[in-house]
Amino acid sequence: GEHLLRTTLEACEWPRVLRQLSRFARTAMAKERLLMGREDVVRAGKTAGEANDLLAQTAVIGALYEEGDAMVRAEVEGLERDLEALGDVSVWLRMVGSLPPLPSPAGEGEEGKSRAQKPRTVGTKTKTEMAVLDVRETDACVTCVEDACACVRTSQQVLMERDSDAQVFSGVYTESREAMLEAAEALVRECRRAVKPGLLYLDSGATPRLSEIRDRTREVEMELRTRLEDACATLFEEEIVPEKQVVFRRDRYCIPVKRGMQGASGTLKGAITLGESKTGQTVYVEPKFCVPMNNELMRLRSEEAKEETRVLRALTSKIRRGAEDIMGVYDQVVEVDTCFARAKHAAWIGGIRPEFAISPAGEDGDRGDAFDPIALTGVVHPVLLEQALESSDGSEVSEGGRPSGVTPVDISVPKGCRVLTISGPNTGGKTASMKTIALCLHMAKCGLFLPTGGSCGAKLAFFDKVLADIGDNQSLEGSLSTFSSHVTRLRDICAIVEHSKSEGSSTLVLLDEVGSGTNPTEGAAIAVATLRHLSESATLTVATTHFSELKALALAGAEGEYEGWRNASVEFDLETLRPTYRLVLGELGASNALHIARAIGLDESILRDAEREVEGMAAASAMAQNSSFEDEGAPEGEGGGASAVFQSLSKQLSKAKELEERSEAQLAGLETEAAALGATTEANGLAFGEPWTAQMRSALEAEEADFVSACERCVAEAVESYESGRWDHNRAEAVIRSVEAAARRRQTEISVAAQATRTEASADRDEDSDGSSLWFPKRGDRVKMRRLGGTRATVVSVNKNSRTVTLKKGNVTFTSSAEDLER
């Protein structure tokens, strides 16, 4: 389950959001954990209340950056400097064995890995457990802990003063953390009695024994130096030594004497030679009376070293035992640093604080039908926004205040919805919409503001778990194909959903191209069965699909078994062949695969061949359905599917009748125009009017009758095909679309014919009155073409004998009758 939850966040690009946060973190530890994608660094609220508290933290800290008070701003800047200067204590804790060693470097091999995982042992203890920090290392470790405690205290003072109800930051400054902080501060005070900041030796006040040894050492050393200085003065007067000087050689005090003069004075009688200079001209001798005192000094220094080692070992042991408290303080520092990073991230993306509603599961187990579970207004995927922010210099800004190059979308799931199927073309934004839903939900649970529009651009229900099957998870190592990897995740998702339902927790399931990667018929069956199962156990399921079967089920969502199923589509502009990235509820989306392939630049001959194949497949499918009508009976137990088909066909029939009414209105308009034209021609003595009108009316009525009968025939065939178990929703829609297109073409042809007849009548009238046309175009003229609605073209050449004119429009050259032209 944890693996599935983690891979869901990875598929929705949560690590990319953590990398965005790392830009604004001040401490090295927070940056490292964010870049590694550690799950504990940005904790998600377990309830809607906890999530709202995290969002309130972000809002409070964001207000600090916007506050105009210079003192407040100075406190915040000082805290940020302290966080940035904080050292990483984990280095010293690993040295003493309180933390596991770092992983071995890449390429070191299995032998190196095994050495890193299995520290060397001496007796019953590991080498790291026997390690002792020296004075410098102890000072560095204690300094880190001291600075971390100071950062926590400073942040507590800055933030708790702004927390009006003292509840927003209660999760950061808890009683248990306060106990850890006090224990760490006590450890710092104890260590500072022995190790002073910046000193390379232990303080004498570390222990009474160390103080006693050092006092005795100073006494002996002072007495020894005094006696040696007196001896040097005597020898200098005797010119045995070149100068009054006491030196330290081989850890013993002695006197430098000229070579050959060692026995020239009674003071040096019995002296011990300790060495000589590099030139050999000076010999270092230790007078006999100094030997006992030098020996005493060496003994005292040995005892001092033993006592210092004992003290350092005790301090190291205390640090080792207090590692849990130390790391607790550092975790608190990282959380504070992350809180400030969230606020700066919100300002960077122009984020708006989302609003959490109650859990959809509700306390009494209801499905939360009283509110919309997801309402994201003007949202932009954070990763896409990051790319736009990095490429923009700040000057190119869209209407919503976003950098140019990103398209905000509205994503809404209506209340009462249990299953939302999103259809539409590839590259249209279906998967991006699902990722945006999951990512925004998790961001809000972690206290991050969302890149939405408006003053309150996000209202969300709280889901305890978000599970997704997005992308291709095939694995050569695990012997998983594309389909088997999808089925494996579906199996795990269903198991977790069932367990969550028994616990009373809510789940959001996101499925990308559910049932894909195998035979379309069997894949569609798996998709339908899976969504039907999840609709009964998951709180909300969002699935993208190209299967018509799923779209049909969602159409039947008003009642029965599929109540709560809704359709949505991503909009696609067929004129520009580009997606608009708008999610439209209640609409079915076509795949538009051929359009997209043409926009991408697939060879046109391949596309034409594909279009012929599509037509052939549709015809073959129709023949197969017709041949099976007599042999196959209606499937049992699919009342919900029949309801879906009935709903779809009813809509199609209603659409056909609406087109019929529009066509009748156009027919009435044509009759009016024909009557006016007939009256005009009759007034001019022309035999034109009623016969033509009757002909046009008859043609149009025949066309309308064919159109309506074709629609009714299509509906009847579709119903029959479903009852026989061979229902093809796409084919029924395609037939109706072709009939609609034919009707529109026929109406256009009738209108053009009427216009052409008017033009011929006008030309005949001119010829009858004048005997010839009053105007004939000449080369270079710009003329209008009546048949093409007044489109202008340029005259290239003329032929008065045949009364034809060669015209050029753009790169196209063609011939037209002169009577069809006007100035």
Compact description:
The protein is α+β, with helices and mostly antiparallel strands and 823 residues long. The chain is 54% helix and 13% strand.
Task: Characterize the structure shown.
The chain is of the alpha+beta class. Helices cover 54% and strands 13% of the residues. It is built from 23 helices and 21 strands. Strands 12-13-14-10-15-16 form a 6-stranded mixed β-sheet, with helices on both faces. The protein has a 5-stranded antiparallel β-sheet with strand order 20-19-18-17-21, with no helix packed on it. It has a 4-stranded antiparallel β-sheet with strand order 3-4-6-5. The longest helix is centred in the C-terminal third of the chain and has 45 residues, at 639-683. The two termini are 78 Å apart.
Rough shape? elongated
Radius of gyration: 45 Å
Q: Number of DSSP helices?
A: 23
Indicate the proportion of strand residues.
5-15%
Strand order of the largest sheet: 12-13-14-10-15-16
Number of strands: 21
Structural class: alpha+beta
- The span between the termini is 78 Å
Helix percentage: 40-55%
The description of the largest β-sheet is: 6 strands, mixed
What is the residue-mean pLDDT, rounded to a whole number?
75
Low-confidence runs: 105-124, 359-368, 394-400, 474-479, 620-645, 683-689, 756-761, 763-773
Pick out its properties:
13% strand, six-stranded mixed β-sheet, five-stranded antiparallel β-sheet, elongated, single chain
